[in-house]
Amino acid sequence: ANLVLYTSQPNEDAQATVDGFMAANPDIKVDWVRDGTPKIMAKLMAEIEAGNPAADVLLIADTVTMERMKQANHLLAYKSPEAANYDAALYDAEGAYYSTKLITTGIMYNTAAAMKPTKWADLAKPEAKGLVTMPSPLTSGAALIHAQTLAGVPSLGWDYYEALQANGAIAAGANGGVLKAVASGEKAYGMVVDFMPIREKAKGAPVEFVFPEEGVSAVTEPVAILSSSKNAEAAKRFVDYVLSEKGQEGFLKLGYIPARNGMPVPEGFPARDTIKVLPIDPAAALKATDADLKTFSGIFGTN
Amino acid sequence: MPHHLAKANSQPRWLFPFVVSFVALLCVLPLARLVAAGISTLFSGRALDLLEEPAVWSAAVNTLTTSFFGMVAAVAIGGLFALALTLADVRGKWLLSFLFMLPTMIPPQVQALAWVGMSGPSSPLLKALGIAPPMGSPQPLYSVAGIALLYGVQHAPLVYLALRAGLLALPRDGIEAAKLAGASPWRVLKDIILPLSLPGIIAGAAIAFVSGVGNFGIPAILGLPAQIYTLPTLIYSRLASFGGNTFGDIAVLSAMIGLMAVAGLQIQERALRGRDYRVIGLSGASATFRLGRWRAPLEAFLWLLLFIMLIAPFFALVSASLVPAYGVVLSLKTASLSAYEEILFRQTVTRTAFANSLFLAGTTAFGLLVIGVLAGYTLTRGTSRWTGLLSAMIEIPYALPGIVISVAFVLVFAAPLPVLGVTIYGTIWIILAAYFASFLAVGLKPVVSALRQLDPALEEAARLSGASFYRRLFDIIVPLIAPAAGVSVILVFLISCNELTVSALLWSAGTQTLGVAIYNLDDSGSYDLASALSVLVVLMVVVLMLLLELMAARLPKGVVPWRN
Amino acid sequence: MAKLILHKLCKDYGTGRPAVNDVSLDIREGGFLALLGPSGCGKTTVLRMIAGFETPSDGSILLGERVLADASGVVPPEKRNMAMVFQSYALWPHMTVAANVGYPLKVRGISGERYRAKVTDALKTVRLEAYAERRPADLSGGQRQRVALARCLVTAPDVVLLDEPLANLDRHLRQEMEETFREFHARSGATMIYVTHDQAEAMALATDVAVMSEGRLLQVASPAEIYARPEGRLVGGLIGQGVVLTLAERGADRRDLEWNDILARLISGQSGEPSMDVLVRPQDVVLGGDGLPAEVVGVLFEGERYALRLKLGDGRLLRAYSRTACIEGERVAVTITAGWRL
Amino acid sequence: MAKLILHKLCKDYGTGRPAVNDVSLDIREGGFLALLGPSGCGKTTVLRMIAGFETPSDGSILLGERVLADASGVVPPEKRNMAMVFQSYALWPHMTVAANVGYPLKVRGISGERYRAKVTDALKTVRLEAYAERRPADLSGGQRQRVALARCLVTAPDVVLLDEPLANLDRHLRQEMEETFREFHARSGATMIYVTHDQAEAMALATDVAVMSEGRLLQVASPAEIYARPEGRLVGGLIGQGVVLTLAERGADRRDLEWNDILARLISGQSGEPSMDVLVRPQDVVLGGDGLPAEVVGVLFEGERYALRLKLGDGRLLRAYSRTACIEGERVAVTITAGWRL
Ligand SMILES: Nc1ncnc2c1ncn2[C@@H]1O[C@H](COP(=O)(O)OP(=O)(O)OP(=O)(O)O)[C@@H](O)[C@H]1O
Ligand SMILES: Nc1ncnc2c1ncn2[C@@H]1O[C@H](COP(=O)(O)OP(=O)(O)OP(=O)(O)O)[C@@H](O)[C@H]1O
Ligand SMILES: [Mg+2]
Ligand SMILES: [Mg+2]
Known about the structure:
heterotetramer; A: alpha/beta; six-stranded mixed β-sheet; B: mainly alpha; binds adenosine-5'-triphosphate; binds magnesium ion; cell membrane (chain B); transport (chain B); ABC transmembrane type-1 domain-containing protein (chain B)
């Protein structure tokens, strides 16, 4: 049977990744299914519940979700030889999942906006009153990790979110919605994942992206093998491939920051070492998820 | 020959069991499986916890209010169009009713975005008029009223279609008798036309209400910024944080939606109970009202509505497909057709998606016509006490958000089928099955209301002519309810053609649908491609409708809803 | 073809009053039964039970040996080989006139030349050849009724049910159609049941006449018999245009009364005496000569003659015919040549 | 109330043959016009134009000074204050019988006690008090027709249009309803137009009778006049049950012919001679005595009498009545007491 990949990467990216892998491993055929993280997870969980999961490999947004899968024993521990080239914080010590790239969340703004923000705190200033939008952690995995990350920064914390709320910021939908709101000029500022505004800017959209001074949060699009996989060997080769230099170059070409050490950054990004990535512990984050969501909802009045 | 004796039932013996098992297999079984999956939650304290969450209740209340007022708006708009285009001497009926089909074809999220764009700070229209609100000003559409309004816009064509068939069956002489009794056109409308077309109005209202209950795209875009959750968006956000309780949670939330649907059905039954709509001695002639000096204003109003509902969002869609990136102002310089090029010639998925969706929509539409006629016949002519339960079972899947249906279908069909040993999971057939379950209610409603209006003597005459059940079904019943059957086919086709949430979880490599393709493009930031594909879908529907127009002469009278 | 037997037939629509109540009736093979009765007495309901559209609440229907309906079940209408003209016509609005008429043939698998010939024939009998391609909605009331007629007679049914099939036709067509029924009946030997309000029609066509009232069957007899010897006040009042006089019984032993019998009882009635009902038909009330004096209280021109209402000295009303005009208030002398004790 | 004038009225449904063709007719204030004619001749169409449901293709309709319809436009039906019994009844299936009947009152703003009283009254006249809460679908054909009647008579319309209002009623109800019409007419003074196939009904009720055929108006006259002096073959054949004999003209100058005139022409007809049409009604054909020999070729029992068809020696057919039964094939002698030259 073909190797089945469930991924939340955008279409073209998923196709490129699969194409790259198949070129490197002509004996393996890959079927892939692409959808937003919540949907792909719903599908997978339903399959697991029905006792017949179709996926072999997962390549989805964040480590917190992977951690949850791991704790439910759905993931296969595999020690990839490529792990050596990665920062230990970027993969699970038991080998259940490996980060493949860095997708940071920073600030985008419409070029027509009066203020040019440089740090997170700027969004709480009076100039930005009523002009800020951000994705909701309830809809977007990246947004949840972002909130959990900023909440852990002493200078920001949940107080920062309270200040934003008081300043008329809204939290809704996913990153795409933020991009549209800012690009169309409905809002001036948004918290958003890096690659979207950078790509759009290149296409001529009136937007800018900044990596705020305090640092950015990152999701790392980890890859993992399902413990139920009947294609474990091929799956392992897939994991090795995405972690390999070749695979990482592929991500680079698509406009993502590779997770592997010693790789360059894509065009439009500042140098890798100038980007300050704020740390997060997946296991702790997972444990705190419910409480954090409650806190967030408490502040923004969502549920 | 005493063995010939049967109960005086006018239907073959297999019919009721067939309908019941169809409904049981496709509607009841998946939902039961979902409940079973969440059963531990249901019986642990978790269900109670869930019901104690104020968020759940406010979502339930929001769902009810938005769907209710959305239904009111849809009935108002759709009813106005149906009355004006079937009964009044409005000019340009053909074009008006042709175009009025199309708003359903614009995906809800696109419709919502277009409206936000139209009325927000970046609105080209408002900018041109110099009354665009400043950046960051509150968006009035981000409210319960806004959601309800868009439900109204999105679902008005459904009401129009459901009502139209009923209006066509109105007895002309009944209207004439009322006129001669001295009733002004307004009173005739109120006392005769509306009550007589009540089955159609209620069918349309029910479709509109239930569509609102299950809608995800509009509250996602208009509700979330204002922290207004409805049950579908709540379910969706629960799915986002997938945990051990998720199935239980969505089972509980789905049950709430199911209860709403059943309650709606009860109200509907109550409204229709004890009344008789059988048109005695159906004449086949239809009535018209001369509007006189009201005609021009009414026409202008209809066109204005159509402009707001269809033309403006469609232009938003077209312009989004022509600019290279979101937020770029469309001008001759920035416009490019590269998105179409990409979609048509480079993306192979487009072709697959068109083929899949056409296959799915066509098969569902015609399959459900057959089943809808059979089930409708059972429900209206049958004497069984179980018909009420049966129609509730049919109603619920349509009311549930597509994602719940698809989770339920994955639960049932992910494992190989017993006995056969093959699995339909991962093939197009599972999507088809889910469509059958989801849209049965839509296909059924117009047919049921048409059957309610039918004079039973017409069928009796056929029976006495010796026509067996199948004969009279084909020769008498189906042609007589042809307008409703046409409506049913077109409704189901339109809805399943750009359906998203059911197929979202059920598709796999090679079985993408148009809805999935558009969503995926949009979700991954290629708005231009998504818009281009949406435009192409609308154009495809227009082409299909024109083809239908060409065949219209060979179809029974009234089947094609934009012809009079 | 066989005898059609209704046995203790009842039908209750659940309105409290049964629409048909304990009707037992044998219609002999190839019989032509006219069913008479006031509006709402259950005639249509009886036909509908025979056709199989309604299940009897009680009783049974047999066609020869074959049970069509009883407590255990019913034969569905499509298996009964009957034909019917519906009171509301029940034409199919989506079919042309020709297709309406030809449908029973089509169902029986007749097609091609034979089909066309039969349809044309049927349309010719009802004088609608020119309307074959019209839709029912574009026809006049009488034309619709004729289409229903043609559809009913196009096949060879065992039983033909006619529910006021000529109500909307003019006299000429009516006569023609009566002729058609007679021929059809003679040719096909079908059992025919004919509901009508027109007694002349019923008498002229039927071999048997049944009279119903309020769901019950009152009398079944041949036309001449039922006209000459009606049983009971109800039938007597219903058949013909007569009036019913209440006269002293006083040992009358014959049912046929003559002028002397009547006269004797007319002039010397005492209250308290046992009385009897006597039916007097207008054609038996002769004006002129030396009869009883009476006053003309109503005159209706009927074309052929005048229908008079007369008041006798003691206030009793009579009906009579006159070839010449009378004026209201005129005084005349009347003789009653015959009466029938009910 | 005022005179109703139809002026050169035409209606073409686009079928090639006009349904109504150049009909001009004055109906005097408070007149009661019976409209007779074969099925499909355009009677309903005339009523529908008067009511305002159809726009005349040509011609105009006036009520007194008021133009109801002409080339420039039409007054909508709701402004005409007319009432109609539809041939198809046109009851509203979603309303009860009482609500159907009361609707014209409701529209006129009558409510409360007065409404109830009027509705109950109207239902009583048609003998449907007990059915007030039923739906039309649960009524018999005749009951439906009576609801339509009650609805028509419940208000005080200027013009009442009746399209075969009694076709489905039995003789007794019919007579009662005729009485009701007469009363209503006398009380309200409304102009009434009455379409019927029953000539006795038409003659008994109407002050004027109009005869139509194939869309054209053939003759308008009082009932007695039109019966006694019909104009032309068509009217002659339509009114009454007579037969039309073609006799040699041979210098006949009077239109009333007697036995001698007829006899002379009956026995010595030569082909080639100019001929005339003579209407002979069955009541003028007397059996017995020393008349011409004839053979009985048809006998129909009609209850009151037998309707005979007779064949004269030269093959001509006659109709006659007989109080006693005859047998087919019997030879009789006939005298024709009167004939009318058409
Ligand atoms: N809507 C229509 N379209 C075309 N032809 C019609 C229409 N309505 C009636 N006709 C034709 O017009 C002629 C007159 O019809 P109308 O209904 O006036 O007849 P009528 O005198 O009332 O007959 P009847 O006694 O049978 O009711 C008929 O030949 C009929 O076929
Ligand atoms: N569907 C029904 N539900 C309830 N009552 C009914 C129904 N159909 C008929 N009836 C009642 O049953 C009685 C008999 O009706 P039926 O139609 O048999 O009368 P009928 O003799 O045909 O009268 P008509 O001469 O007026 O057509 C009537 O009183 C009628 O009101
Ligand atoms: Mg009847
Ligand atoms: Mg007519």
